[in-house]
């Protein structure tokens, strides 16, 4: 498993941007698929974006180009750039690691503690 620590969440106004970071404590980070999920109160955890070791990226069906995932293997860090934020984006955001690319949370074997993102109207 991989130890993951998210950062970068906070309070932002509608239309604003945030960049979330997820630092991993594993020498095998570069070979791991990394994903971003979020969970709002009363809602299921939903997949946002994933990035494999080759930098191929893939996104959730509802992601409309406002979110961009990237990784820096030299820093063992994956990022989620979020633009044009809306109140509906308010949630706890999680990064996760898996052995293979997937949009399903059950495939991911390592999770961070989450970081809160709140978008005010």
Task: Describe this entry's structure for a reader.
With 121 residues, this protein is mainly β. Helices cover 0% and strands 49% of the residues. It has no helices and eleven strands. A hairpin with a 5-residue loop joins strand 5 and strand 6. The radius of gyration is 13 Å and the shape is globular. The protein starts with a strand and ends with a strand. The mean pLDDT is 95.
Distance between the termini: 38 Å
Backbone shape: globular
Q: What's the pLDDT, averaged over the residues?
A: 95
Helix content: under 10%
Per DSSP E runs of 2 or more residues, the count of β-strands stands at 11
Q: What is the string of SSEs from the N terminus onward?
A: EEEEEEEEEEE
The biggest beta sheet reads: 7 strands, mixed
Rounded to the nearest angstrom, the radius of gyration is 13 Å
Which residue ranges are poorly predicted, with pLDDT under 50 across at least 5 consecutive positions? none
| Estimated structural class | mainly beta
Strand content: over 45%
Count, helices: 0
């Amino acid at each position: 498993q991989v130890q993951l620590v998210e950062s970068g969440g906070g309070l932002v106004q509608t239309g604003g941007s945030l960049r979330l970071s997820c630092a991993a404590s594993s020498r095998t980070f570069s070979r791991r698929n990394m994903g971003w999920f979020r969970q709002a109160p009363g809602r299921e955890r939903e997949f946002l974006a994933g990035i494999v070791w080759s930098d191929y990226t893939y996104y959730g069906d509802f992601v409309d180009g406002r979110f961009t995932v990237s990784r820096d293997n030299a820093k063992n860090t994956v990022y989620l750039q979020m633009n044009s934020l809306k109140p509906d984006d308010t949630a706890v955001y999680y990064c996760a690691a898996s052995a293979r690319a997937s949009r399903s949370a059950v495939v991911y074997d390592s999770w961070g503690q989450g970081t809160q993102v709140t978008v005010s109207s």
